[in-house]
Amino acid sequence: MPGIVEVEDLVKEFRAFERREGLLGALADLFSRQYRTVRAVDRISFEIRPGEMVGYIGPNGAGKSTTIKMLTGILVASGGTIRANGYIPWKERTKYASTIGVVFGQRTQLWWDIAVVESFQLLRKIYNVSESDYKTRMKRFDEILELGRYLHTPVRKLSLGERMRCDVAAALLHSPPLVFLDEPTIGLDIVAKEHIRQFLKDVNHHSGTTILLTTHDLSDIEELCPRLMIIDHGRLLFDGGLKELKRLFWRDSALKVDLKDREEADRLGALELDGVEKQRLDDMSYRLRFPRDQWTAAGVIRRVVNAAEVRDIVIEEQSIEEVVKRIYLGEMFQESRP
Asked: Model-level pTM greater than 0.85?
């Protein structure tokens, strides 16, 4: 089955004006401007299959939003190809727009001064959604997102969380097969995030909607996306599952060890374990951090229980935030291969 999104050697370059310093520099800029070329997206290739939920993440300035804007047809690529829903987004923009849903977390597609329900009715007519389909979808949206209480409120009077629920529903009102979400949970509280996540799971499961999600909240990725793509400086560093990501980048493991008493803790502190970092947490507990290529958790535990009387041991799993932070700090994908 062909991909619903096919991207090959995608490139986007911008010309950036370099302003010179001082009054003389400002005068010189009036007559002769200096520019430099910035490559925001650098030969990215990937394919997304129908029904996938894919996380697309990276640090600020990595090229995430630029990629999304090319995928939605807002920006024209400088090089490479995109085919999504059978269209080239920037060449067939009008036909393509009716087959996708888009949410940009900082911008709303709802009309600011009219009630939410009026925006939905306008969108229904724009997308030629039948009255019966509209009612069915609104009923389902209300069951998960609890939209009923907001429908007759002007958009400008909604809180951020309330507006985001309405924006996500608006993007899916015409039941598009492909949805792009750029920071849909930014600034939301735990309850609002959970409503949106449950809604996205529902439309993916029941309608087979394909979703590409960019976010800085990695809990969104863990909750929603079996597949993750990481971009930095315009290049795709990783494309795979969360388990594969941890296998490649998770270099250290940790144990939290609670000892019987202070004497036993002192005994553990004196134990020689080459390559193991020991951090004393209090009088009777330690955290032991060790490289996975040198030690196994079982090997460390065996040495510990043979040296001191242990009350409890907890294996601490490294969070996805720590793994991704390590990548953002420059530990490249190739360097992490075993």
From this structure: no
Give the HSE-up count for residue 254: Cα atoms under 13 Å, Cβ half-sphere.
Answer: 14
φ/ψ of 131, rounded to 5, equals -60, -40
Domain limits, the chain: 50-246, 251-317
At residue 334 the predicted structure's pLDDT band, cuts being 50, 70 and 90, is very low
Nearest to 283 by CA among 301, 257, 306: 257
Read off the pLDDT of residues 20-44 as tens digits, 9 standing for 90 and up: 888 787 777 777 877 788 899 999 9
Q: Buried (b) or exposed (e) across 136-152, using 16+ Cβ within 10 A?
A: ebbebbeebbebeebee
50-246 belongs to CATH 3.40.190.10: no
Where does the pLDDT of residue 310 fall: very low under 50, low under 70, confident under 90, or very high at 90 and above?
A: very high
The count of C-alpha atoms lying within 13 angstroms of the C-alpha of 83, restricted to the half-sphere facing its C-beta, is 8
CATH fold match for the domains 50-246 and 251-317: no
Residue 125: alpha-carbon gap to chain centroid: 32
Q: What does R_g of the chain's alpha carbons equal in angstroms?
A: 26
Beta carbons within 8 Å of 334's beta carbon, 6+ residues apart: none
Give CA separation, 193 vs 188, 212, 257, in Å. Answer: 6, 17, 35
What is the rounded CA–CA span in Å between residue 315 and residue 310? 14
Cross-strand bridge partners of residue 44: 10
**Assigned CATH class of 251-317:** alpha beta
